[in-house]
Write a structure and sequence with these properties.
two-stranded antiparallel sheet, 43% helix
Length: 116
């Protein structure tokens, strides 16, 4: 895209363009991103497809992984034993492909995450 000066300024610039703007589109990154999104979109049965659709708010059936029975007491090395709520969060995280653990400061999110 080239712009030339108006007639009032043309004698100052002697008819030369004031500036030149070049737009160059390199689509490699965009193409790779789009290819990845299409792969997620088309594969609804894979874990990646499940997460893609779940995060975007689509209606997908929940996935639950079978786990052996959980121990009554569970903790990571050097960390406190988990309470019932923490144990439930650990069980949910192990059983499902997507689990969000949230809470105010000091409620055990780090200890729970370390145990997972």
């Amino acid at each position: 895209y080239t712009t030339t000066p108006s007639s009032a300024t043309s004698d100052v610039y002697k008819g030369q363009p004031l500036y030149t703007v070049e737009f160059v589109w390199k689509s490699t990154s965009f193409d790779r991103m789009l290819q990845g999104l299409r792969a997620y979109n088309e594969d609804t049965k894979s874990l990646s497809g499940f997460l893609f659709h779940k995060i975007l708010g689509a209606e997908v059936d929940d996935i639950t992984f079978p786990i052996p029975s959980m121990p009554k007491k569970l903790s990571a090395n050097g960390l406190p034993v988990l309470n019932t709520f923490h144990m439930n969060a650990v069980k949910k995280a192990i059983q499902s492909p997507l689990c969000i653990i949230q809470g105010p400061p000091g409620t055990g999110k780090t200890v729970t995450s370390a145990t997972i």
